[in-house]
Design brief:
single chain; alpha+beta; Immunoglobulin-like; TIM Barrel; 22% helix; hydrolase activity, hydrolyzing O-glycosyl compounds; carbohydrate binding
Length: 677
Amino acid sequence: MAVIKEQDNGLLWSHAGEQLLIQPWGKNSFRVRVTKNADFTKQQNWALSLPVEDIQAKTSINDDSCEITNGDIKAEINNFGWLKFTNGKGKTLLEERWQVKPGGHKTSPLGIPGRELKPIIGGDYSATMRFEPHEDEKIYGMGQRQEKQLNYKGCILELAQRNTQANVPLVVSNVGYGFLWNNPAIGQVTFANNETKWEAYDTDQIDFWITSGETPAKIEEQYANVTGKVPMMPDFASGFWQCKLRYRNQAELLKVAHEYKDRGLPISVIVIDFFHWTQQGEWKFDPKMWPDPKSMVEELKQMGIKLMVSIWPTVDINSENYDEMEDKGYLVRTERMYGDSYHFMGNETFFDATNPGARKYIWSKAKKNYFDNGVRLFWLDEAEPEYGFMYDFDHFRYHMGPALKLSNIYPLYYAKAFYDGQKAEGQKAIINLVRCVWAGSQKYGALLWSGDVHSTFESLQKQVVAGLNAGLSGIPWWTTDIGGFTGGNVEDPKFHELLTRWFQFGTFCPVMRIHGFREPAEQTIEHADRMFNQPFGSGAFNEIYKYPESTYKILKKYLFMREALRDYIKLQMTNAHEKGTPVMRPLFYDFPKDSESWDVADEYMFGPDILVSPIIHSGETSKEVYLPAGVKWIDVRDGKQYQGGNKVTVDAPIESMPVFTRADKPVQSLLDFEKNN
């Protein structure tokens, strides 16, 4: 018979060496842990790192079952030890799927348990949680992925970080719950029609958080309260960011900045990409190409432009810092053979972001060579980290343990290294561009971008979905390489079309940033695997004024449209900071009672009052747009009004993208801009 008792302001159920602890963890929420060890790993809260208010839950303990209630959520453990979660109305949110005898009303001879901690020979466990499926459930969130589906029901998703894939294992369900798999281990989740299954390949315990919310907004706010909220975005960051691979020297970069200003084009940030350094792992400007960084930063400042510099976590074996970092245990280790884990212009390994000493070390170098020269914006690239093309996680080991057990948390600690360093120096407005995140990264000023995506319309389609699900995963600051990163030929009219459509979409992203390795280029990225200790070249131009006049005219218009929106964007950034509200979000976020809106994947809300319908197919010059019910909508281009709850077909010539504003809450700055332009 199970032992049931109150413990740690929650309920502890134990039987045959297994312990299960349910605790109130924020409003209408529980944290659940299961272990077969002597005790829980209490010193590590992973994403749930913030202190939560002391909520006194209501408990009820019978001879062989129990329940605990926290606001609008109740957890029950029946006489077989099976978990079930319901909301205040008695609706089942989640329940474990047990296929064993005895089984009450769900008897099965299959012998498949609802939860498992299978021992790995030598110590740890592999973990599996199985839940009963809901008919017609829709599942969103799960970070940023390169998929066309907005709704992940029916999908199998890897729980791992890769270039273009940011794993944030948070689910937002139309059933009325949010679920966080609070485990940084490599694994997999299956959202099948017959079961939902979460797996961690190497772990100490099962750990998850569940919240009850009648609307997606309530779920997001409750999640942000326990994992953290983004800082307030500094005003400059809502403007236009100019970037390319790559500006090779100080004179070239300043010439571009002056050209933007001389033409009267709005620009807030200009970016220095990789290989501006002397060697990977030295984190400093090459003085031959960047002779006076401090004066460069000051000259940009006089023009009202901020400078961002690229940081890589790679450390080349020839770096002046390699031996010291290896001696101190500041590098990621390998389990077999050679210590290098990456080949890009040399033999490299990664600094170990899970090591507090390594975090302080890399910041000390960045402070001396960048921060002290006036740089306040860092581009934390390769943040997964990018283990070549194979991502053999079982081959790597961190200060905190095996990569198989915790590699998903690497990008969070990478962001934390710079956030903590900048904060300690007194910097107030902290925003850093990162290529990967995990649950909770948002509180460290992380601006996620979607990685090295290709310059194709198919890729553009995926970026729309990627941005929406990233926002639903608690990452309100998100952007994409406008035009895609690889494959865009600046002389090709087909790329001009793609760039224009991507630029229009980018105007209505939380951050508007153009970037890319444009063709024709001196070499490809693949060449870098063999070009040891040679200078890396540069792609073709990527400044908007260098494109053909017909393209430039459209890009220029949308650049100024972004300027007209900045007061509106600031309001949305305030909501993100105060409540965790995503800036760009699916239609159902603002119209949860409109069932049609839950199935729309090619439109979105930009804040509560602007509906955006990007053009994501080549040659498309008209589009059918669904307008959510309950309000009237204004096409900002011609002022025509439409009744919500209908699909309308509108023109979409290359010069414009369909954008609507609510008639009852019109964004006047947008209407005025279109009227005057």
